[in-house]
Amino acid sequence: PQGSEEAKAFVNAFLKRSMPKMKDEAIQDILTRKAVVLEHYSKKKTKQKRKKTKGFTAKQRREMHLFEIEPEQQRYTIFLPLHELWKQYIRDLCHGLKPDVQPHMVQGKLLKADLHGAIVTVTKSKCPSYVGITGIILQEFKHVFKIITKEDKLKVVPKLNNVFSLEIDGFISYIYGSKFQLRASERSAKKFKLKGTIDL
């Protein structure tokens, strides 16, 4: 508006719309000070919930055969490079496995390490048929190891009631399967007791 009266009317109307809770006297009082703070009512933005991507169920994984190793792939020589990688991984994890290294330190590292690629031997078992099985660990589950032997046979060995030996650079470690019934991901976060009664 060009005229002063029109401008005054416009400002008064604008302020009433902008500050509906204030009376006319209060608005005029603010105008005399030449400082006006307009109230702003912002609409609250509704946050959109992110949809979690659902993975496959255990049944679906079984139906799709995700964890099965094809018969033509069940050959010991195929997985020897995996074993070499595992040995390098353990050496890096234990800072070189030097002769003066403390055995309990190495043992503590191995308890939490990934065992895929390790060569293990069943040294004790309540079931005599398992004793002497040696091979590379291809898969570790909560209750079993899947091991490929030098004879190219895939063995499923339960952890329960079995003792496994593991050797690297002259250091031999024993794994008591009954105390080892965890998934690899859970084992890395678990605190193992160094002392205690150990049995099959």
Automatic annotation (TrEMBL):
GO MF entries: ribonuclease P RNA binding
The organism's place on the tree of life at top rank: Eukaryota
> What are the GO BP annotations of this UniProt entry?
rRNA processing; tRNA 5'-leader removal
Has UniProt tagged this entry with the keyword Phosphoprotein? yes
Its family remark reads: Belongs to the eukaryotic/archaeal RNase P protein component 1 family.
Quaternary structure and partners: Component of nuclear RNase P and RNase MRP ribonucleoproteins. RNase P consists of a catalytic RNA moiety and 10 different protein chains; POP1, POP4, POP5, POP7, RPP14, RPP21, RPP25, RPP30, RPP38 and RPP40. Within the RNase P complex, POP1, POP7 and RPP25 form the 'finger' subcomplex, POP5, RPP14, RPP40 and homodimeric RPP30 form the 'palm' subcomplex, and RPP21, POP4 and RPP38 form the 'wrist' subcomplex. All subunits of the RNase P complex interact with the catalytic RNA. Several subunits of RNase P are also part of the RNase MRP complex.
Name the chain's protein: Ribonuclease P protein subunit p29
Please report the organism this UniProt entry assigns to the protein: Pygoscelis papua (Gentoo penguin)
Gene name linked to the record = Pop4
